[in-house]
Amino acid sequence: MKLTKKAYVVLGVATIVLIGGYSAVSLHYQNAFLPHTTVAGVSISGQSVVGANEQLLKKVNSQKYTLKDKEQKLLTFTGQDAGFSHNFKPLLQKIKQSQNGWTWLGHLFGKDQTTKSEDALILNANDFDKFSTQTLEKVNANRQSSVDAHINLTDQKFDLVKEIYGNTIDVAQFKKTVAHGINQGQATINLKNDYTQPAVKSTNQQLQKAAKQLKTIANEKISYSVNGNAVQVPKAEIQSWLTYDHGTISLNKAAVTKYVYQLKAKYDTFDKALTFNSTKEGTVTVPAGIYGWSISPADEISALMTEVPKGKDFSRTAVIRGSGIDQKTRSVGSTYIEIDLKAQHMWLYQNGKVTIETDIVSAQPPQVTPTGVWSIWKKERNATLKGKNFDGVSEYASPVNYWMPIDETGVGIHDSPWQPKYGGDWYQHHGSHGCINTPPGTMAKLYNTVSEGIPVVVI
C-alpha cells in the first residue's frame, strides 16, 4: 500500500517530535545523572551534582547502623559515633564526567549502576579507633577466644592438641567490616565473618613434625658414666627439659643445669667431709679440703644441650676435674698420708700398710694446722719458707731441703733441722706457724717415696 502525501507529513512530524523529545531529554541528562545511578544505596538518577550531594549527605548524616552478630543485635550507632563524615562532591563529579547524556535511553532499560563511595568517606582515625576499642570491649566480654593448635608439654606425652574456634571479634576485621558497611550505606552491618581465627591449626605440617620429634627425644636412652658410676637419665627427667616455642624445639637450660648439679651433689667427692678410719682415733669425720674431684658443670650442660635435641640414644662419660679421680666415691683409697695432731704423729700408708711413720711437730697455739682432706700438690727441693713470726710483725725465712705443700694457704710438710725433738706436747711452746715439721732423715725418705697428688688426711 502506498502512503499518501498526508501520511508522509504526519510521519515526518512524528519523527521530528521524537527526535526533539529525545534531544530534550538528552540535554537534561547533560547536567543530571542517568537513570539507575546509585551511590551508597541512594538513587541519584535525574539529579544534579548539587542535588545528589544534598540528598546523600542528608541520608548518611541521619542514618543509623545496626551492628549484628548473625541474628544477635549488638548495638546501634551513627556514622558520626564511629568517626565518619562524607564529602560526596568529588565522587559525584567524577561519576558525572564518566556519563554521556545522549545514552540515557539505554540506561533507562538497564540495570542499576552502583558506585562504591569509599572516596567520599572522611575518617577520623583516632575517633574510629576509640569507637572500635570501646565497642569490642563490650562485645567480646565473656566470649571465648580462639586457641591455636599446640603441643601439650605438661603431660609428657607431647600430644597434638587441636585448635579451638572462639567467637571473639577480630579488631582489624571489625574495622574493615564497619568501614565497608558505612561506605555502602548498609543499615545492618553483620560481624558473623569477623571472628578471630586460630593462627596455627592442627594440620600445620611444622607442628605435626615437631610433635613427632618431641616424642622421639622424650624416649631417648641416655647412659652416663660419672667416674665409673653408671647413671641412666630417667625419661621423665628428659621430658621435663623439653620446650617448644614458635616452631623451635629446645631444652630448658635451667632444668638441665639443675639436673647436672644434682649429679654433682650425689657423686662429687670434692668439698665433702670424709668418714675416715684413723689409726688411733677410730672412725672420725674429717672436714673437706682440696682433695677430691667434681663434675665439670659447664662441659656437661653444654653436652646435654647439644646432644639431647638430636633425638638419638647416646652414652657419655662425664668430664671430671680434681684429685683422687681413681676413687669413685669419697675415699682416699689405700695409699695416703695420715697426720694425727692430737698424737703428733704421721703415717704413710701404701696399699693399706704402714711403710713410714714418725712423730711430728705441728702449729704452736694460737696458730693452727688445718684439719681436712688435703693433697700434696707440689714437691720442691731446697725451698725457702717465708712469713711473719708469732709477733705478727717481724718476718722469718727458713730454708728447707724438702718442701711439699698440702693446702691452698701455704701449709705443708717439710724437714726441720732446728727442732731438737718431736711428738708429745713439744708443739705447744715450740711448734710451727702451721706446717708439719718432720725429722730430716724421715722427711728425705718420705719425699723420695710419695708422688704429687697423694692424699693427706689431717685429723
Quaternary state of this entry equals single chain
Count of runs of 4 or more consecutive helical residues: 12
The proportion of strand residues reads 25-35%
* Shape summary: rod-shaped
Question: What is the terminal-to-terminal distance?
Answer: 150 Å
Going by CATH, the architecture of the domain at 336-458 would be Beta Barrel
Give the strand order of the largest sheet, numbering strands 1, 2, ... along the chain. Answer: 22-21-20-28-23
Largest sheet: 5 strands, mixed
| Topology, number of strands | 28
What is the CATH level 1 assignment of the domain at 336-458? Mainly Beta
| Rounded average pLDDT | 91
Taking pLDDT < 50 over at least 5 consecutive residues as the criterion, the unreliable ranges are none
Pathway: Cell wall biogenesis; peptidoglycan biosynthesis
InterPro entries: LD-transpeptidase (IPR050979), LD_TPept-like_central_sf (IPR038054), LD_TPept_cat_dom (IPR005490), Transpep_catalytic_dom (IPR038063), YoaR-like_PG-bd (IPR022029)
Keywords: Cell shape, Cell wall biogenesis/degradation, Membrane, Peptidoglycan synthesis, Transferase, Transmembrane, Transmembrane helix
Organism: Latilactobacillus graminis DSM 20719
